[in-house]
Design brief:
225 residues, alpha/beta, Rossmann fold, 5 strands, Cutinase, Cutinase/axe, cutinase activity, secreted, hydrolase
């Protein structure tokens, strides 16, 4: 793994050449993106047929971020029905800081615990909901590790997972250990060095909003399976 210095220098280089708030997917305008940077449909709303749990990338705002979280939520609601899907971002102890990327699990135990608690809340509050999940950058490591740590009964309730700019892509061989490989789809853009176990952020690491529709289709197919 590259040292933290490489991560920080890479992040600074990216910020110098790219907007700090990347352009959203076509189906979301900037106002909609700001409105959906936080999503608490699970904690504040009623149970839905499907619950999407999402962990944002490092330094992203809200609990959904801006790069792929909001467009994924919107695309999945469009695909399955707005009244059928609850979107919940991982917040609390998951602060999406940079330093945590350099730890052995590419995030810290508190962040994993935060995501694990959301999965547990979804299963407890809504035992009949079909859970799907997504994570971007450090958030992909958060979801990866949390899925491994939840109980087997909760893991069985998780129907599909999408991981964008997967920081553990090399270590975990493009999948989540002890979780069905066919139920995971990894998105690694050509030129995104984060997927190559370097943690060097390039402009390609900011392009995953364009994959929202495809990822929503994948998750919908797992819900309907």
């Amino acid at each position: 793994m590259a040292p933290l210095k490489s991560l920080l220098f890479g992040a600074l280089a990216t910020l110098a050449v790219a907007s700090p708030v990347p352009a959203p997917a076509p189906e979301l305008n900037q106002l909609q993106t700001r409105q959906t940077m936080n999503s608490n449909d699970l904690t504040s709303g009623s149970c839905k047929d499907v619950t999407l749990i999402f962990a944002r990338g490092s330094t992203e705002m809200g609990n959904m971020g801006t790069v792929i979280g909001p467009p994924l939520c919107t695309a999945l609601k469009s695909k399955l029905g707005d009244d059928k899907v609850a979107c919940q971002g991982v917040g609390g102890q998951y602060t999406a800081g940079l330093i945590q990327n350099d730890l052995p699990q590419n995030t810290d135990p508190a962040s994993i615990s935060a995501a694990k608690s959301v999965f547990e809340e979804a299963a407890s509050k809504c035992p009949n909901t079909k859970i799907v999940a997504g994570g971007y950058s450090q958030g992909s490591a958060v979801i990866d590790n949390a899925v491994q740590e939840v109980s087997s009964s909760i893991r069985d309730q998780i129907k599909g997972v999408v991981l964008f700019g997967f920081t553990r892509n090399v270590q975990d061989h493009g999948q989540i250990p002890n979780y069905p490989k066919d139920d995971v789809k990894v998105y690694c853009a050509v030129g995104d060095l984060v997927c190559d176990d370097t943690l060097i952020v390039t402009a390609m690491h900011l392009t995953y909003g364009m994959d929202a529709g495809d990822a929503a289709n994948f998750l919908a197919s797992k819900v309907d399976a």
